[in-house]
Predict the structure.
Amino acid sequence: MKQTIFIITSIWFLSATTGCTTETPAKNEVSTMDVSINYMFDASNFELNKEYTLPSKEEVRFSRISYLLSNFYLIDENNFKITLNDQYLYADIGTSKTQLTLTNIPKGVYTGIGFSIGLDSNTNHGNPNIYVTNHPLSPINNSLHWNWKGGYIFTAIEGKTLADNESFIFHLAGAMNRVDIELAHPFTKGDDALHAELIYDVKELFENPEVYNIKTDGSSTHNVSDTVTLKLFENMNDVFTISNIGNL
Amino acid sequence: MKKSLTIILLTLYIISCKDVINEIPQNPFQTTPYYFNYNTSLLPPPRIPADNPISVEGVQLGRMLFYDPILSSDSSQSCSSCHNQKNAFTDNNQQFSVGVEGTIGKRNSMAIFNLMWHIDGFFWDGRSNLLRHQAIEPIIDETEMNETIDHVITKLNRSSLYKENLQKAFPETTFNEEIIGKALEQFMLSIISSDSKFDHVMLGLESFTDEEKTGQVIFNSEAITIQNEVDPNNPQNFGADCFHCHGNSLFMRREFLANGLSDNGDKGLGGVTGDPRDDYKFKTTSLRNIEKTAPYMHDGRFKTLEEVVQFYLSDMNASSAVDLSNSPNLHALKDSVYLSPEHKKALVAFLKTLTDESLLTNEKYSSPF
């Protein structure tokens, strides 16, 4: 009998110390926010290689729209910014890379979110070889890097104007041109993951505050300070709107 | 009774712990991790396939296969026959390679280095997504080694040397197509090039000559077409626009692009995807070691770097196989671009700083036989 008790006790002890018991994990907080971006041209869904009429009345087809987002933050009910460090999005409409999952979202009541189109100067001019190939800032991944430590293209817009069958290529860069976006939309973060839906209106790139005319304003730029760059960056302030933030 | 109870309880314990017991590896297969030796400020972090971790033994087996004519039908050609190390693993300045049957290929042999960072397909037309699949194709291609994979497997399984090296590198005891591909993949992934003069300059160990410096500016500057040129001698006003497609530290771009060449009947990526928008798009290859990889382009049509430079500066619109309005990457080059003879020479001088002599002689990449 003593031997049996010893065996049972030993088994209990072994089980307890080797973790054989299966425990149901307690419900954990999910501190993420999935962000998806839908592309529009005014009121229509936007697609590459489809014909659109710009506010300048020029008919165009886009073949590439790629950009980088950084500096994500939340605005809490006291108007404090909760920064979400080291989180980036490389978006490329052509390859459907248009969503990301923000992590480390604290519970709380918020009034909106913010982010930047482009990068701060240090990140922009840092060594791009530190990033693994699938990182949003890997030049191999995003094809948005200018040369050796030359910085990133924040937004690349490429396509052709149909009337004269000429290509256009806008590679917009320069840390001083970074566009800071803030979108008001109240939401509460509890235990569950959140989902945010943003809208990117391509038409806004070519109007508001100023209509951009490719033929007269210019069909290309790779300069951080020419009028083409400055005008298109200025128009970028209104490309994003927010349609919803809620639980998944 | 006590004995029975003990057995039952122990059985129950073992069953309840089966997951734990199954986690204990039975006779685990061990290889030696392969460490890459390059300056990580010059190239990105290693990118290794999760299902083919690189080992010293795997690289060695791949190296043996790469240099062994056993892979060809008449044992006359190995991978290295058309990918010679001294030419940055291209084919000895040949426009097209000649197969074991004397058949001439239709595309120029591609360089082999820094392949771990190629993420959108291999071959000029991108028809292989994985390097291990690419590695098999020349073996079975009638115009190249003209061998069957079954015959290669038989030959390798008959060899005590190969069986011994297989058992060091992989858990398998006999060769199969996947193992051959994976071993070749490991060897090719191990070939790194980041020891050129350009790299030394980036690390502050050497300096460019004045001519090379000028060439670097030209490389990284946007071209200005002749009709818009106001002062061709103004250094702010010239460029060859190379950086758009060869701009990062690998001097390549992941996308397959059309570059304004005239039609030679080869549709490149379009021939693979069937999408007319991909017609005449080819792999955007690295310019590292470009001095050693002549002739140039997918069909080796240009013999020298000077011819290549002249092509990009000439009127592409007149001869391009594609409507260049669909190729914004060539926006600045589609019309004639002026570069003075001195500037063309400077550009070529800069391109030659990308030559990595150590790649051409490194024993790690040479024949093990």
